[in-house]
Each structure stands twice: as structure tokens, then as C-alpha cells.
Amino acid sequence: AGKYRIYLDLNDIDAVTYKISADDYGVDLGGGEDPEEPEDPEDPKIDNAWSIIGSVAGSNWDKDFYMKEVSAGIWVSSPIEFAEGDKFKIRFNNDWPDNRGLADADDSLVEGTPKEAVLGGNDIAAVAGKSTVVYDANNESLYLLGWGLTGTLSGLNWDYDVPLYLDADGNWIAKGIDLSGKFKLRYQADW
Description:
With 191 residues, this protein is mainly β. It has strands spanning 5-9, 17-21, 50-54, 65-71, 74-77, 80-82, 87-92, 99-101, 115-116, 118-119, 124-125, 129-131, 133-136, 141-144, 147-151, 162-163, 165-166, 172-173, 183-187. The strands form 5 sheets. Strands 3, 4, 5, 7, 8, 9, 10, 11, 13 and 14 form a 10-stranded antiparallel beta sheet that branches. A 3-stranded antiparallel beta sheet has the order 16-15-19, with no helix packed on it. The chain is elongated and about 65 Å long.
């Protein structure tokens, strides 16, 4: 137990050396400097992916929040903190020709209840709070994640949820998922 400074010399990959020193902990020994952060780092663009864009999380229609394809044609965002009055759409490949909104102006999404995704449709009114947006490209529908499966199923690594949706009888279901691997059921992508 204690506090230590660790020195790691990787200059010769065939003869890596290290030193652990309790005496040097907290002592300014000079040497290297931390690199300066760029003043305005630009988020890397991801091609061939769906993303959320709008007046979301402090952005003003100028930042894409990328979604991940969790099973064939099912795209899921990371949880996003929406504020009252936020609006958004989804778009493909960082561009507007292939975008989706809703049929009705100022309509919002609901947990587990798919609504028709319309090419060039109206902005979607966000519901305040943290939500995960789901786009089902197979059925051209949008909804918010309610219940989902997370784990090592469908090629995932506990990093996204495969969404379930409500059927006409009020049951949460998912179709076409490879259930090999480990998984757990959770609500709103949270434990």
C-alpha cells in the first residue's frame, strides 16, 4: 500500500524497462510536458451510419450523435440527455438527402411504441430526460428504448442494448436476435 511513481521506458521495444519509486511520488522532477489540447477539437465523422442531429445536448444542428446497428437494420443511440424544447431528426452518412422525422409536426417518441419514420419528415419533439433513440430501418419506424437486452449477443460487448418493443397485446418483444452469448434484461439502458 502507498503512493508510487512508475517510470516506463518503451524506447526499445525489445528491452522494455520500468522503475517503481515511492520516493519520487509527488516530486516535480521536470522532464516531459503534457501536450496541449486543441482549442476546438472536431469530432470524427463516421461514414455509413445513422445519427441523431438537432438542438440536442447543447448542440445546434451541428453535431451528429452516432447510432450503432445492434442487429440487422436496428440502430440504437447511446443514452442522450434531452432538454425541454429540444428537437431532432436522424440522418444517414452525415448528410441530409437520407433523413427521417415524423409525419406530424411537434410529435414525440414513446418508449417501445414504434411510430412511422418519414423520409424528410418533421422534426421530432424530444421528451425531457435521458433517452435512447431506436430506428428500425426494416419497418421504417422510430421509438424510445424501454426494455432492452445487453451483453455479448448479436456481436455486442455489453456496450449497447438490443431494443424490445411493445406488441398489440402489451408484451415487450424482439425478433431476429442471435441469443448466443451472455445477456441481461435492463430498462432504459441503465442498471
